[in-house]
Write a structure and sequence with these properties.
The complex is a heterodimer.
Chain A: H1 8-20, E1 24-29, H2 32-36, H3 39-52, E2 57-58, E3 70-75, E4 87-90, E5 94-96, H4 104-113, E6 123-124, E7 131-132, H5 139-142, H6 160-165, H7 170-177, H8 181-191, H9 203-211, E8 219-224, H10 233-240, H11 242-256, E9 260-265, H12 270-285, E10 301-306, H13 316-323, E11 347-351, H14 352-364, H15 366-370, E12 380-387, E13 393-398, H16 403-410, E14 426-431, E15 437-440, H17 450-455, E16 464-469, H18 474-488, H19 494-512, H20 519-533, H21 537-541, H22 544-552, H23 554-562, E17 578-579, H24 589-593, E18 599-600, E19 608-609, H25 619-623, E20 629-630
Parallel strand pairs in A: 1-3, 2-3, 8-9, 8-11, 9-10, 12-16
Antiparallel strand pairs in A: 1-4, 4-5, 6-7, 12-13, 14-15, 14-16, 17-20, 18-19
Helix pairs in contact in A: 7-11, 8-9, 8-11, 10-11, 10-12, 11-14, 18-19, 18-22, 19-20, 22-23
Chain B: H1 13-32, H2 40-51, H3 56-66, H4 70-79, E1 91-96, H5 99-103, H6 107-117, E2 131-136, E3 148-150, E4 153-155, H7 160-175
Parallel strand pairs in B: 1-2
Antiparallel strand pairs in B: 1-3, 3-4
Helix pairs in contact in B: 1-2, 3-4, 6-7
The chains are: A alpha/beta, B alpha+beta.
Chain lengths: 631, 177
């Protein structure tokens, strides 16, 4: 099928002309977070309320239909998920938070018609207590540096024309019509772009290696199997700006000489799957994808594949196996996918965020890209900031930003279990998910980049930052990650398959108070053995959380083992029962039942349990008729 | 196509015609993917979409049609977490136990659901086939932790009480039908 070559400038000009007639725009966030909070109902409410108020509205901007000067559209993730559904009013840049469908009428009347603010829907900064009208005043946004996410949360992800109007696909056109594969690889190499999926391998070098492979058939794969629990950057990019990913894949394809590409998306991200699918269909309809791209002799086709729920498929050789219709089991490297990948052909496999960065680099130039971030890690990085922080959501900062900046300035501080912000709640941050490590108070000033994190036994990973407060038990945290990797181990390597099971059992011993003096030593030995004896990244990094947590919180582990005590108070088996003096009638039942005589007290007066003597058998709890003994 | 007996089809007339119709669907799915062995995973996904699980006889049928050993197809079906070899309930409740949800106390929600529905990790579907309760590693809606998905509807900032109430509401609405 041959389509006429698309004139991007013409499409873009028509759109901008039409857009110039629009004086106001209401952007309703339709990322997964806001949709879960009812954003689509808010969108419908805006449409019905504006029509009730007699205001003409444009929902899809095309040259021929420009009735009305108000546009209502949906966007991808605006990042501030916790405060959703979010509604932005442009050009003023007013941001309304936690908008309900019932609020639409008031916003239409007060803001759109009368031009005033609806105070109660504005974000209130919990630190200063001031109401913030727009993103520029909200610390969560003001301190970020949005590059890859710049268009996410602004443009309509389902409208290819809007992407084109924002210079979209011009970098791909440049790559296909004016550049050679070699110059593209050089440009990316100069930019210093490193893979955002975790490893941090230079993207330009990966492309160049694949480019030099002989043979007419090569593949590009976009790895959207973002399996790290606590990370959702790739989901947000695929949902918020799917065309940037496709454009990145086109440039990669041109650079290596591929004519076929796959986007592999986790099945847990249904919205990302449907948006990427629509983006591919739209790009095909416009003649951007298909045969004779931009009128050249090159063709490029993209297929979208949904994952089937296996964390290990984030590993490139396992992912390739999965596309081939096999079990996702990693293969030894070499051969690298660049030499022999999908169906045995040279393959470039890049992460979503990496590919979305490519068109940006091509448009701004390698030199400007290098002006962000640090020398060895140029550019910006998106992080998913979650856990015990005030502001959870999607953020983007230059490499080299400190942990303090992220947790305290953007995140707004650490909360305790009751949700209150206190200066003393910070305990640790887990970075890089189940393959990463933890950062503690001593690392608050550490500039985050690939190399500095490696130096302290952590890794950027895909970019999940989970903040933990003082009430979080670090042994249970290690157990949580171990449970995850044990579940997800594909079973190929004995050390990973059996080792993770044994490490989990050892952690259970610690949590249940059955650990002996040898447990920690055995755990450490086993962890190192699993690191050494596993084939792929999953097994090699599975022990990282344990080693990292044990290094930084040794005392907490020892308290569990030697004193049978959980300093965070989370491990129920180690908790010593307490008698509530208010409820205790002094009946002495518990003291009589206690096998070790740990309970003392006078008749008809509240009793107490001696922590030193108690063996935590629970007999006293069962014996008490007044529910006065609590675990 | 093999006869109904060979495929272990239910014997009642009504169910029989229904099963046959659905088997036609399997053939359609296989045709849509050109009987391509590499498309095994999308094929199984479509089949599961049709049946809500992967019945054993259908897996064998798919294997034969694609020219693959049944062991290979079973291997794939058991490897990936999304494939279910046992029927699931009408309402699948998936509770996120990603790191963010975990630290925001997702396990008490799971325990509350298990208790209300008398389920456990090993027995996760109710005998009346109304509910299946399972955990997933991360739904990517960490900003709203803890998160729960009922069929395809995402619910954020869930509490054990809210989860149980939701189950009660579904039971009430199903009972009144």
């Amino acid at each position: 099928m041959k389509t006429a070559v698309i004139n991007l400038d013409q499409v873009s000009k028509e759109y901008i002309d039409a857009a110039n007639k629009i004086t106001r725009r209401v952007v309703i966030c339709a990322g997964t977070g806001c949709v879960a909070n009812g954003a689509l109902k808010v969108y419908d409410a805006f449409l019905s309320e504006t029509s009730a108020a007699g205001v003409d509205v444009v929902t899809e901007l095309r040259a021929e239909e420009t009735k009305g000067d108000l546009r209502i559209s949906r966007s991808g993730c605006q990042g501030f998920c916790q405060m959703g559904p979010l509604v932005t009013i442009e050009p003023e840049g007013i941001l309304y938070t936690r908008v309900k469908p019932e609020d639409a009428a008031e916003i239409v009347r007060t803001t759109l018609i009368e031009g005033a603010l609806v105070d109660r829907l504005l974000y209130v900064d919990p630190v200063s207590g001031t109401r913030c009208t727009g993103t520029a005043e909200i610390p969560f946004y003001a301190r970020q540096s949005r590059t890859v996410l710049k268009k996410c949360g602004h443009i309509d992800p389902e409208d290819i024309i809007e992407y084109i109007a924002a210079e979209g696909y011009t970098a791909a056109r440049e790559a296909y019509t004016r550049m050679t594969p070699q110059t593209i690889c050089e440009e990316i190499l100069h930019s210093g772009l490193r893979g955002r999926g975790g490893g941090g391998f230079p993207t330009g070098r990966k492309w160049d290696l694949t480019r030099k492979q002989p043979g007419p058939k090569k593949y590009v794969i976009c790895n959207g199997d973002e399996g790290d629990p606590g990370a959702f950057m790739d989901r947000s990019v695929m949902e918020g700006n799917p065309h940037s990913v496709i454009e990145g894949m086109m440039i990669a394809a041109r650079a290596i000489g591929a004519d076929e590409g796959y986007v592999y998306v986790r099945a847990e991200y249904p919205l990302a799957v449907s948006r990427i699918r629509k983006a591919v269909t739209d790009a095909e309809a416009m003649g951007l994808l298909g045969d004779n791209v931009f009128g050249t002799e090159h063709s490029f086709h993209i297929d979208v594949m949904e994952g089937a729920g296996a964390f290990v498929c984030g590993e490139e050789t396992a992912l390739i196996g999965s596309i081939e219709g096999k079990r996702g089991m990693p293969l030894p490297k070499p051969p690298f996918p660049a030499q022999s990948g999908l169906f045995g052909k040279p393959t470039v496999i890049n992460n979503v965020e990496t590919l979305a960065s490519v068109p940006i680099i091509m448009r701004m130039g390698a030199a400007e890209f290098r002006s962000y971030g640090t020398e060895s890690s140029p550019g910006t990085k998106t992080f998913a900031l979650t856990g015990h922080v005030v502001n959870t959501g999607l953020i983007e900062v230059p490499f080299g930003a400190t942990l303090r900046e992220i947790v305290y300035n953007i995140g707004g501080g650490v909360t305790n279990d009751r949700g209150e912000v206190t200066g003393e709640s910070f305990k640790a941050v887990q970075i890089g998910g189940p393959s990463g490590g933890c950062l503690t108070e001593e690392h608050l000033e550490l500039p985050l980049d690939f190399d500095s994190l490696k130096g302290v036994g952590a890794m950027v990973g895909s970019g999940g930052l989970v903040v933990m407060n003082k009430q979080t038990c670090m042994v249970r945290m290690a157990r949580y990650f171990m449970q995850f990797t044990q579940n997800e181990s594909c079973g190929k390597c004995v050390l990973c398959r059996e080792g993770t099971k044994q490490m989990l059992a050892l952690l259970d011993d610690i949590i249940e108070g059955n650990a002996t003096g040898h447990t920690l030593e055995m755990l450490e030995k086993l962890a190192i053995a699993v690191q050494k004896g596993s084939l792929c990244g999953l097994g090699k990094t599975a022990p990282n959380p344990i080693l990292s947590l044990m290094r930084h919180f040794r005392a907490e582990y020892e308290a569990h083992v030697h004193q049978k005590r959980c300093p965070a108070g989370e491990c129920k088996a180690l908790a010593i029962p307490e008698i509530d003096p208010e409820k205790c009638k002094g009946c002495t039942m518990c003291a009589k039942k206690c096998p070790v005589g740990a309970i003392s007290g006078e008749v008809k007066k509240p009793h107490v349990i001696s922590a030193e003597v108690c063996i935590k058998c629970g007999a006293c709890v069962a014996a008490c008729k007044f529910d006065a003994v609590m675990l | 196509m093999p006869s109904n007996q060979e495929l272990n089809m239910p014997q009642t007339l009504n169910k029989n015609t229904q099963s046959l119709r659905q088997f036609k669907k399997v053939c359609e799915i296989l045709d849509r993917y050109d009987h391509d062995q590499a498309k095994l995973i999308p094929i199984l996904q479509q089949v599961q979409h049709e049946y809500r699980y992967l019945p054993e006889e259908v897996l064998t049928y798919v294997a034969t049609s694609l020219g693959l050993p049944p062991a290979r197809v079973f291997g794939v079906a058991t490897f990936y977490a999304h494939f279910a070899l046992k029927p699931k309930g009408k309402y699948t409740i998936r509770l996120c136990d990603g790191t963010a949800c975990h630290v925001k106390k997702s396990i008490p929600i799971l325990e509350a659901l298990y208790k209300r529905l008398s389920l456990s990790e090993n027995k996760n579907t109710t005998p009346d086939m109304l509910f299946t309760v399972e955990t997933v590693s991360c739904l990517g809606a960490c900003g709203l932790a803890p998160v729960m998905v009922v069929n395809d509807e995402v619910r954020g900032q869930v509490t054990p009480e809210a989860a149980v109430k939701l189950v009660e509401d579904i039971i009430a609405s199903e009972g009144s039908k």
